[in-house]
Hints:
The structure holds 3 protein chains of 3 kinds.
Chain A: H1 2-14, H2 25-30, H3 35-64, H4 73-95, H5 97-103, H6 114-125, H7 130-159, H8 170-185
Helix pairs in contact in A: 1-7, 3-4, 3-6, 3-7, 4-5, 4-6, 6-7, 7-8
Chain B: H1 18-21, E1 26-27, E2 33-37, E3 47-48, E4 55-56, E5 61-64, E6 73-74, E7 79-88, E8 96-104, H2 124-133, H3 146-150, E9 160-165, H4 174-181, H5 183-197, E10 201-207, H6 211-220, E11 227-231, H7 240-248, E12 263-267, H8 268-280, E13 286-292, E14 300-305, H9 310-316, E15 326-329, E16 336-337, E17 351-355, H10 374-378, H11 385-393, H12 397-402, H13 413-417, H14 424-494, H15 500-528, H16 539-566, H17 571-601
Parallel strand pairs in B: 1-14, 9-10, 9-12, 10-11, 13-17
Antiparallel strand pairs in B: 2-8, 3-5, 4-7, 5-6, 7-8, 13-14, 15-16, 15-17
Helix pairs in contact in B: 4-6, 5-8, 11-14, 14-15, 16-17
Chain C: H1 2-29, H2 36-44, H3 58-66, H4 78-89, E1 107-111, H5 121-125, E2 131-132, E3 140-141, E4 161-165, H6 184-191
Antiparallel strand pairs in C: 1-4, 2-3
EC number (chain B): 7.-.-.-
Domain 4Fe-4S ferredoxin-type (chain B): 359-389, 399-428
InterPro entries (chain B): 4Fe4S_Fe-S-bd, 4Fe4S_Fe_S_CS, Ion_transpt_RnfC/RsxC, Nuo51_FMN-bd, Nuo51_FMN-bd_sf, RnfC_N, Soluble_ligand-bd
Amino acid sequence: MTEYLLILVSTILVNNFVLVQFLGLCPFMGVSGKLETAMGMSLATTFVLTLSSVCSYLAYTYLLEPLDLTFLRTITFILVIAVVVQFTEMVVRKTSPLLYRVLGIFLPLITTNCAVLGVALLNLNKNNNFVESVLYGFGAAVGFSLVLVLFAAMRERIAVADVPVAFRGAAIGMVTAGLMALAFLGFTGLVAV
Amino acid sequence: MTQLWDFSGGIHPPENKHQSTSRPLRRASLPEWLALPLQQHIGEPAEVVVEVGQRVLKGQKIADVTTGMGVPVHASTSGTIEAIEHRPVPHPSGMDDWCVVLKADGQDEWCELDPVSNYKQLERDQVLARIRDAGISGMGGAGFPTDIKLRTPRDRKVETLILNGAECEPYITADDMTMREQASEVVAGMEVMAWILRPARCVIAIEDNKPEAIAAMRAAVENTQIEVVAIPTKYPSGGEKQLIEILTGMEVPSGGIPADIGVMCQNIGTAVAVSRAVFKGQPLISRVMTITGDAVQEPCNFEALIGTPVSNLLQEAGLDTGKLDRLVQGGPMMGFTLTTDAVPVTKTSNCVIAATASELPPPPPEQPCIRCGQCAEVCPMELLPQQLFWYSKSTEFEKAEHLNLFDCIECGACSYVCPSSIPLVQYYRFAKGEIRQQQAEQLKADRARERFEARQARLEREKQEKEERRKERARAAAEAQEKKKAEAQKAAKEGDASDERSAKAALVEQALARKKAKAEQAPASSDQGESGQVEKPDIEALEKQLAQAEGKLATMEGMLEEGREQQADNVEKLERAVAKNHDRVKRAKETLEKAREQLSNEPTAG
Amino acid sequence: MWTSIIIAILVLLGLAIVFGGLLGFAAERFKVEGNPLVDQIDALLPQTQCGQCGFPGCRPYAEAIANGEAINKCPPGGETTIKALADLLDVEPEPLDAEHGVEQAKRVAVIREDECIGCTKCIQACPVDAILGAAKHMHTVIESECTGCDLCVEPCPVDCIDMVTVEPDIRTWTWTPPKSGLIATDRQGASA
């Protein structure tokens, strides 16, 4: 039980995929303009990450390993991720056309989100079993969502603040992200994972 | 000891009330002319019921509201109506509005009054009608018609009636002096209101910086059920919602009114007006107003007639124009600057501050917000002024509205404490105005869309109806044709033409039959003509056709002449028929010519 | 060696077919009909039905915007509408396209009744039926319903319709935002 808790704490805070491992920065900077879009994006990414992490694990353990095809893992994982993202796109389009239009190109770009592929691949190094894989993917997703939402909230406030002209837009966003990363550095060593 | 609660926030600005309370209430002298604005209340502007040049008596109704919410306007003194025109009125925009200009004749003659000795014998509605006819609207600043306010629906019974004697804003002492010198009228008015509402509790709340007023009111309420409660001095404890929280511990729900929780607040001046309306039959034609500020030599309170130009009062108070820098209507926290002193005293004017430059200096320039949060600490409505400021400034009005922008009472406490001198309330007022404007435009756009769609539907419907009618007519015409054919055939068979038409139809039928016969003959004859014999054109038949066509043309031309003389509707149709017949005649002639040519060129059949 | 390559290819093929089937099924299951976005866009447009955007009415323009048309073509809507559309669709707000007209103060049509001949041409032109009248009878504009689209001015054969600016009234007055020149570069930018 504590094992699972530790996995979650590790993926959400200590080894946060965005601010500590610096994966998935594209949607992090691109979708964090408004809080509503950020929340929509984080939900979509959570769904994709968890599902693809599980499917990748299953594909690896029950298909690639027995057939001794582990060298195919990268392309297989990409295939799995692409399918899951397509599926998510369809669901989002049906349930919320506005969110679909607002997310725009970033929804299919989850396929190329290095965090998603990264989670799938890094999961293998940890020799996790099924439940642990699920938690690993889910924890990564929650960490991503947490940071995305926090950053979006901050960017909304910064957008209306008196920022000097040279810093407006992406520049102050990067500075803020860097400061957030510094803050998350404080979690180092909390969990020995 | 009555239990009191406290509201969060609030400030303690310097009171500056002693200047105007050291002198007793003064009756302002009768002015030469008065300007009575037609809208001194919330609702529709009143419509004038007198004419220019008409003489009116004091207390006579000169304008009334017939459609919509509002209260009538009365002449404050006797005189002649000089004009009904745009005049400056006290409004933050500095704009003019419709006013009735009354030239006083100096006699101050009352019209016939109708006092009531025992109002309790009347019906509740009758007393409310009296209050409306007396033109009474809230005199604390908003101007809501008092009779409508007192007419609460049955499901919202008022349990606590509060008379607001707090007067928390600095400089203003009008209610203070009213309570000191007209205490019995205040209590009489409150009793009328209590009789109308039947509350369980009646309270008069007075801030503890007015000990004389408290003493006077305590004396006046002896032998009544009314409580007089002294509340701690804090700005803005005179705000309706804050006062209710202090006295009852209850909060008025966001976007709601005090009646929602069974409470009602009325102004001290309104109570006096109600008392005068019921017991003396006098309409609301005067009010107590504070004239203060360092630029006047004798700051005091005046009992002034509604419509008196403020310049008169300033003069009476000894205005020193050299020292005067700014005229503020209202108090330093919630008031606005007047652009001219020609504005009249209205039912909601409570104070004019004639300030010197050092007394109310121009505000320092706005500096960046340092996010100190002082504003949130003093907000009496527990809002987030800093966030409201950011959203109002960047025009993100949706978010501002979401943070309860419309619950802001614009008291000015946040602007007062801001270390960067940001005019916060101005931003909120701007945001509120924009949001209201957007809502009005949205409403208008929705209406326009509805009208547009209705119009499209109407045009569709008309097109369809036209189609229907056209089909109907075509069908009817076809039927008529069928009938005619049948009759003609019958007539042709029997050789009996009953009327001209069927005779004509019979002729047509015969002609058609002949043509058909000829057509059948023609292939037969062409069969015979295999030897190269060209068909002989039947000159006789062609000549006959030409004769027929010419005959028809003559008839049609005759009908056209008739039609033109009578200016009948079918003139166009007749013209077309004539043209057709012309063509027919022409063609017949041509065919005949060609046939004759052919015949003459043809070698005789051998 | 060849067997492993063939097995690898077969595995990938198999996976692709399975996933393809799944996606195809999902595409059917989650099919989207219509376009509710158009309603949301239409709700933001001012409904003057004037046609200045180049489309025959506000709804066609809303449909075009949903298909990617520029959002800066509506003069009666002005800056506020462009900003609202930009917020809804999460695109950059652009300044009003001058090709389609400039933003003007609100205007209403007024018919000079002395000159009206009762031809009903303006009544037929008004997209919101804001003109009251009948053939050979006086025509007049219902001011509260007029959207100021000025489609009625052209058809009038005697040119008796004026577009009058609505003057601000004490009742329609609103506060202006306080001016603040806080950031030096902003001030310079404003004066530049």
